[in-house]
Amino acid sequence: MKNGIYIVATPIGNLKDISERAKEVLCTAEIIACEDTRVARKLFSLLGLPAHKEFIRLEDHNEAEQTEMLVSEAQKGKIIAQISDAGSPLISDPGYKLVRRCREAGVDVFAIPGACALICALQLSGLPTNSFMFAGFIPNKEKARKDLFNKLKDIDTTLIFYETANRIVKSLAVAAEFFGDRELAVAREITKVYEECVNGTAQELLAHFAAKEPKGEMVLMVSPPPEDIKTAGLDIEELLKEQMKKESLKTAVKNIVEAYGLNKNEVYNLALKLKNNE
Ligand code: SAM
Question: Which residues are CB-neighbours of 244 under 8 A, at least 6 positions away?
Fold first, then answer.
């Protein structure tokens, strides 16, 4: 195995999600840079991996100084693995400064992919995946939370946030203010026994969590803002109706989408609605 730093993803709940490559790197590495040495040692024990190696704590507050030490060890030819408490390192977890410094210093960096909560959540949500934005943890302070939602609300993309069970209700209440009737999804306990993904408006999700206490780790997602179907004063519904008198539904949708640069799915859904109401 080449010398350098290996960024190793570990499971987010189900231990079977560890990859063969991850196990090989964790077995071979001489130094394990981790957020919490007790959590890391426990993971090694659960995975049946040899733990006679150096475990070094790498956290946000000591990342700068630990980085220099790890870079120097890597330059001496050591193999170093970096892990988080769970999931993919660097994603709302420490490590990017280490990677940056390694690359500046000419130390090889390797990614060993695996579970990442935001990707699994997006896959479960059924929300559009062609474009998405991960915005990290929702801030705990009310004003910061509002400012963040206000800043992101008009971006044409699916929004993804990390959240905790004890704050989700507050965040959904603010989400109701900024995202109105848009579809949201909360994926929780992914890869664990009580994995679920609940979709609905912010109000519907608030009702859900009023009936069922929010528990476990969770990811909040928000669907993109609806496209304004009345483009530049045009009544798309009327134009679509006209097209549907002359053309098949598919061709009518295609003609309108191409003529006005609209979202195909939205026009298709509108066409279906019109057809069903006939
Ligand atoms: N780096 C990790 C990743 O991307 O997979 C995430 C670390 S971050 C400190 C922890 C947050 O990730 C949790 O608060 C939660 O929002 C999300 N998360 C982690 N595991 C999860 C799971 N099994 N189900 C749902 N969300 C999870």
Answer: 252, 271, 274, 275
Express each pLDDT in 49-100 by its tens digit. 999 999 999 988 888 889 999 999 999 999 999 999 999 999 999 999 999 9
The answer, yes or no, to whether any atom of ligand 1 lies below 6 A from the CB of 117, is yes
Mutate to test the pocket of ligand 1, among 119, 162, 196, 215 (most ligand atoms within 8 A of CB): 162
Which candidate, 128, 154, 223, 155, places its Cα nearest to that of 183? Answer: 223
Which of 7, 10, 92, 195 is the pocket-test mutation for ligand 1 (most atoms within 8 Å of CB)?
A: 92
- Whether ligand 1 lies within 6 angstroms of the CB of 174 is answered as no
Domain ranges of the chain: 4-115, 118-229, 231-277
Closest C-alpha to 51, from 71, 30, 76 = 30
The verdict on the CB of residue 172 being under 6 Å from ligand 1 is no
CA atoms 108, 113, 117, 118: torsion sign: positive
State the CATH class of domain 118-229.
Answer: alpha beta
Q: Are 93 and 84 in contact (CB under 8 A)?
A: yes
Atom of ligand 1 nearest to the CA of 87: 5
Q: Which ligand 1 atom is nearest residue 195's CA?
A: 24
Determine if ligand 1 sits within 6 Å of the CB of residue 9.
Answer: no
- Residue range 93-150, pLDDT digits in tens: 999 999 999 999 999 999 999 999 999 999 999 999 999 999 999 999 999 999 999 9
Q: 214 in ligand 1 pocket by Cβ < 6 Å?
A: no
8 Å CB contact between 106 and 200: no
Tell the CATH topology of 4-115: Cobalt-precorrin-4 Transmethylase; domain 1 (3.40.1010)
pTM exceeds 0.85, yes or no: no
